[in-house]
Design goal:
five-stranded parallel β-sheet; Rossmann fold; Helicase, Ruva Protein, domain 3; single chain; 3 domains; 16% strand
């Protein structure tokens, strides 16, 4: 059922609009408001799929209603109703975010066609939001400890900007989850998120991987190839374990950050890129700078915002939530019945020394689910979670 609100001060036109829409489809639930103020009150209380709004009204005109709705519930499409003398204003409302406008007296076919298209568009927006939420669950940050809440708060503040972020913390703590959240909550979420594990790429290939190369640049360069920075254009590049990057590659990354330009290996032609850079490391970069392994100027370029992800041993209160999350996820992945953990089993897991952090906990939970009984007990933990 699509819920439509008609805001119109002229009773005769309001009745016509309500009658046309109500008779058009049983799936339309049509409500009415006789002025802008009453319309805004209704919008605050109810969720509408579409609003039809007159432009010239007492108390609050249609432009003011449009601006207010875009602040309150920006996802609702608004079709403006314009008199002959309001056409210029109607066109201007399109710039302000109106979906469309129809003239008085309303043409039946034009009205119904506009309504159908607007409702279809609203449905697509809702579906896209639902899909985005589903994608986000793959990178959910589990925990309610102060440390995790602070990270979530920082992400909310920083995500909508293009500020560079340096994520630090031990291996296995979930630094990549922070990077995914930053990207998914940003305006760049429609663009790509390109991940590069700098530690996994040989030093002699890292520049080609990041910036691409031209044919003949080196022995195995049999054709031109774009790099990760080009692939991430209009999106985000996540440079994981950046502390392992060679000094030569660091110099080129620094130039890319300074000038928003890159050069493919073997070519001196500049290529413009629009990329947000998020980096992560398990190393102490200030110590690496002192030892000559990392460029200080690059560090300051990357570390506009610093986010430190704590070790699991520093957030033991989150272990029950993590165990529950992994239990559900593993049961879904394996198509098995979820196993519960006894309170004593959970307490024992909270007492362990988790040198491998979240990654190690996940492996242990999977092992206990496979080898333990219907309810994972304290004795199961002692038997199967030993190191």
């Amino acid at each position: 059922m699509s819920k439509i609100l008609v805001i119109e001060d002229e009773a005769a036109i309001r009745r016509v609009l309500v009658k046309i829409l109500s008779e058009e489809s049983d799936s339309y639930q049509v409500e009415e408001a006789e002025d802008g103020l009453l319309g805004i009150e209704a919008i605050k209380k109810e969720d509408y799929d579409l609003i039809l709004c007159d432009i010239k009204m007492p108390k609050m005109d249609g432009v003011e209603v449009l601006e207010a709705v875009k602040k309150i519930k920006p996802e609702i499409p608004i079709v403006m109703i314009s008199g002959h003398g309001d056409l210029d204003t109607a066109v201007n409302t399109m710039r302000l975010g109106a979906f469309d406008y129809i003239s008085k007296p309303p043409d039946l076919n034009r009205l119904l066609n506009t309504v159908r298209i607007a409702l279809d568009r609203k449905e697509l927006v809702v579906e896209n939001k639902m899909l985005k939420k589903k994608v986000s669950k793959n990178y959910e940050m589990i925990g309610k400890s102060d440390a995790i809440e602070q990270i979530k708060s920082m992400i909310d503040k920083v995500a909508q900007t293009d500020a560079r972020v340096l994520i630090t913390g031990p291996n296995g703590t979930g630094k990549e989850l922070v990077a995914h959240w930053l990207h998914q909550k940003s305006e760049r979420s429609k663009g790509p998120l390109i991940e590069v594990n700098c530690a996994a790429i040989p030093a002699e290939l890292i520049e080609s991987e990041l910036f691409g190369h031209v044919k003949g640049a080196f022995t195995s360069a049999v054709k031109d190839r774009a790099g990760k920075f080009e692939a991430a254009n209009s999106g985000t590049i996540f440079l994981d374990e950046i502390g392992d990057m060679s000094l030569s590659a660091q110099a080129k990354v620094l130039r890319a950050l300074q000038e928003n330009k890159i050069q493919r290996v073997g070519n001196d032609k500049d290529i413009k890129v629009d990329v947000r850079v998020i980096a992560a490391t398990n190393k102490n970069l200030k110590k690496e700078i002192e030892e000559g392994n990392f460029r200080e100027d690059l560090y300051h370029r990357l570390a506009v915002i610093l986010i430190k992800v704590p070790a699991l041993n520093d957030r033991r209160e989150d272990i029950p939530l993590l165990v529950e999350y992994f239990s559900n996820k593993i049961a879904q992945e394996q198509g098995t019945v979820k196993k519960s953990f006894s309170n004593k089993a959970i307490k024992l897991l909270q007492e362990y020394d988790w040198t491998g952090n979240i990654r190690e906990l996940r492996n242990v939970v999977e092992r206990l689910i496979i080898l333990g009984e219907k309810e994972v007990s304290e004795s199961d933990v002692k038997m199967f979670a030993s190191k």
